Amino acid sequence: MRFSSKQDIEAPLDFVWKEITDFEHFERMAVRRGAEVERIDHLKRPAAGMGWRLRFAYKGKPRKVLLRIAEMSPNAALDLDFDSPSVAGGIRLELLELAPKRTRISLAADTRPKTIAARLVIQSLRLVKGRTQRKLDGQMGKFAKMIEERWLERAG
User: What is the CA 49 to chain-centroid distance, rounded?
Assistant: First the structure.
């Protein structure tokens, strides 16, 4: 199943790129929300091959996900692959400079079930795709607002 969302951010492209590739910040956010995060590479800087093993509870069950950077095009795109026992897929984030201080971020996520149970969950998401899309758009909006606020703190 494929999901996508776009948001415009009132911040320069370079700043938005630095924010979406601040993986240490995302690691801390995940830990604060109760996840266990383990780096599985030895890279010093963000690059293809960087990866994490995540463990967290979702809907009352423990989950495990392996997340890796598949490809990075600085100031343009970031491709992530994820794999779990029941679902696999990819996420693509693309940046487009609309103006010197305005950037569009586009997200496309593709999920593929690996088990019958996951196939049923994804099928049920198709039935409520409108609600799922609104949730994704809301989360992308919050993410965009967080980046804008961080830009205003630095610029102001």
Answer: 16
127/90 Cα distance (integer angstroms)? 21
Task: Enumerate the β-bridge partners of residue 109.
Answer: 3, 91
- The answer on pLDDT for 39 being more than 90 is yes
Q: Which two tokens stand for residue 82?
A: 């994820």
The label of the residue with tokens 């392996």 reads 66
79 DSSP β-pair partners: 71, 92
Q: How confident is the model at residue 20 (pLDDT cuts 50, 70, 90)?
A: very high
Looking at domain 2-155, does it have CATH number 3.30.530.20?
yes
Supply 130's token pair: 């409108």
CA geometry: angle at 127 spanning 126 and 128, to 5°? 90
Give the whole-angstrom CA distance, residue 136 versus residue 140. Answer: 6
Residue 125 has pLDDT above 90, yes or no: no
d(CA 9, CA 68): 25
In a 3-state reduction of DSSP, which class is residue 46?
A: coil
Tokens read off for 53: 């093993």
Distance in angstroms (rounded) separating the CA atoms of residues 75 and 23: 15
